[in-house]
Design brief:
This protein is an alpha/beta fold and 255 residues long. The protein has a single domain, classed as Rossmann fold, CATH 3.40.50. The protein has 10 helices and 7 strands. Strands 1, 2, 3, 6 and 7 form a 5-stranded parallel beta sheet that branches. Strands 4-5 form a two-stranded antiparallel sheet. It is globular and about 50 Å long. Bound molecules: zinc ion (2 copies). One zinc ion (ZN) binds at residues 44, 46-47, 49, 54, 56.
Amino acid sequence: MIRLSSLLCPPKCLFCRERLPFDTDLPFCKTCRDEWEKETEEVCGFCNKPVRECLCTTELMQKAGLRVLFKTAYYKAGRRTLPNRVLFRMKETSSARLYSFLGEEISPNIFSYLQTEKIKLDECLLAYAPRHRRAAARAGMDQAERLSKELSGHLGIPRCDVLIRKRGKNKAQKELDVGGRLQNAKNAFALTRRADLSGKTVLLVDDTVTTGATMVACAKLLKSAGAKRVLCVSITFDEVGRNPREAAFSTKPYA
Ligand SMILES: [Zn+2]
Ligand SMILES: [Zn+2]
């Protein structure tokens, strides 16, 4: 069905502004879609699976007992790849076309994992790592919250917004090394007062993972509230984490 709004204002590719068919639900044109597909097929150096099927986590996450990270593509620092641009757009738009597409991209992998591991959907909850308050206010949205809402719809798993961002001056993660990031993340998050996650499997959502410090700090809080298991979900994953040789140097700060 063609929507009236799309006749008045034809949809455009969010990445190259090319006009799209009136009835499209996709965020991008065929060329950009092909580029996205290619990126999601890149292979992980640890498990040899395409990144969209890979569950590998970072060294820091493994040490904290986090062994599952669902993702769709690699973030490549300093490049203008489509996944990098998707990550950037996620921070500034709550576009239903973009988020619905991302939800559809990542949900099948989550579903099949839960099925294989015999984890029932009604044992699961979705949580997200909240963005810095000032950044969220500036953008008028929180991309991890928006993504968790989308996933809740796709997976039929309820949300539990039990994590909060503490007030105060947390430094930007990208300026810190691994140790600094972990300490910074520990200081940045807290639980809401009545958080009871006893026996639950919590899917912890963020937009991207670099060292995994945010995931580790948030998962620790979720487990302290009773969560039996924490599975991580992000759209992109820093490509430093895809190659065993490079990962050996992962104690260095990431640019
Ligand atoms: Zn395009
Ligand atoms: Zn892998």
